[in-house]
Each structure stands twice: as structure tokens, then as C-alpha cells.
Amino acid sequence: MSDALSIYFAGDLFDHKDLIGNALLASYIERESSGQYTCILPQDLEQSSNRKEHIRNQDLKMVMEADLGLFNFDGPDLDSGTVVEFIVAKQLDIPTVILRSDFRSAGDQDASGDSWNLMCSFYPRNEVISLNGMEWYQKARGDKRPVLDTIDTLYTKLAARVIEGFAVARATPPLASDPKLIENLYQWAIRFPGAGLEEFISNENWVAEIIEKKKRKGLFE
């Protein structure tokens, strides 16, 4: 769908469980939203080179281009790359969802707070979905149902929750509505990381094109 909203899906991608879990959830989000959302997985991006800064720049560019952001905050310690990408998205006032399925307690907040460092909390246009992944799995598994049936039940439910989260985040009024301010935010976002990001983007009309695309989709309203 040409008018589908793109989601940059950030999270761990270092082992087979991370990789297939990301791919499964992305596919279920697309299916359960009837194509309203399409997911961009960093693990599926073709790297232009093996240089570390190029890989970083490509991921940052995709964060900025995306209409929305989904950030997996699992683990006792959050993945540092995911946190950086989340902050870049928040700098640009991109509607986001944080998903945590890890039932372990972590972070420096009290029992009523989030299970991660407080510096990653309290940002606007962001919906937090925190759930007990073990409990959800056991309910989906039931009396030893076939694993593929378990996957379908679990990820259908999880995708529906994420879609609900995006509806809430998108309904929150944007902080930036002045066209010049929005342009300045994006221009600064491609400049401050350094390490050749401006040159990597290369297209001098890139910012204007991204802003116009998002404006057509109602993301600045």
C-alpha cells in the first residue's frame, strides 16, 4: 500500500532468537493491520559496505525516514544501539512504541515505574507496552499445542497490542507543528551525528521530501 505507515523496528539482532522473533512480529503486525503498517527491520537492510560508520549511518537514516518507531526494550540491560535510535526518533517527534516482553525487573525506577533506566522514560508521543512474555507463551502453548499454533496465537495477540499502542501514540498531538522548526530538526538530525551521515544521505532534497511525505500522512497534525 502506497499510503502505509512505515515502522522502524529496533531491537537486539545478534542471535537466531532475536532475528526470527523480530521477523515474526514484523510480519504479524503487517498482517493484523491489513497492510496499514509496514516494518523496516535493520537486520534485513543490505549493507552498503563493511565500514562501521556506514552501517550506523544507514540505520540512522532509516530511523529518520520512518513514519513510526517500534523499540524492543527487553533484557536486564537495554541494547545501546536501540536506545540511541529511540532518542533520535524522539528528537524528531516521531510517534513511538516501546515493547518489553521480559518479565524480569531491571533499571533504577520503583515498582510503579518502567523496568529500565529512567533516562529512557517519560518521552511524549510514546506508548509503553510491558508484558510478561513467559505468561503469554504458556497461555498460548496451552496443553502442549503444536509449536506453530502457539506461535500464531502468541504473535497475533502481540501484534494486536502493538497496533493498539501505535493508535495511541499517533493520536497524541505533535510537539512540532511549525514547518521551519520541523525542517531545522531534521537538518540538525543529519548533521550532529557526524561521521559522514550528511554525505551518506547525499540528496540535498532529502529532508524536504521526507517532511512532505510525513505531512501527507498526517503525522504533523
- Could you name the CATH class? Alpha Beta
Q: Provide a count of the helices.
A: 8
The backbone outline, from C-alpha atoms, is globular
Report the CATH topology name.
Rossmann fold
Total of domains: 1
The secondary structure category is: alpha/beta
Please give the share of residues in helix. Answer: 40-55%
Question: Roughly what is the average pLDDT, rounded to an integer?
Answer: 92
Protein name: Nucleoside 2-deoxyribosyltransferase
GO biological process, one term: deoxyribonucleoside monophosphate catabolic process
Pfam family, one: Nuc_deoxyrib_tr
InterPro entries: 2'-dNMP_N-hydrolase (IPR051239), Nucleoside_deoxyribTrfase (IPR007710)
Attribute tags:
Rossmann fold, alpha/beta, 48% helix, five-stranded parallel β-sheet, 8 helices, 221 residues, 11% strand
Topology:
Elements: E1 5-10, H1 16-32, E2 37-40, H2 52-65, E3 68-72, H3 80-91, E4 96-100, E5 126-130, H4 133-141, H5 147-171, H6 179-191, H7 197-201, H8 206-216
Parallel strand pairs: 1-2, 1-3, 3-4, 4-5
Helix pairs in contact: 1-5, 4-5
Condensed summary:
This protein has 221 residues and is an alpha/beta fold.
Question: How does this model look, in words?
Answer:
- This protein is of the alpha/beta class and 221 residues long.
- It has a single domain, classed as 3-Layer(aba) Sandwich (Rossmann fold).
- The protein has 8 helices and 5 strands, in the order E-H-E-H-E-H-E-E-H-H-H-H-H.
- Helix 1 packs across helix 5 and helix 4 packs across helix 5.
- The chain is globular.
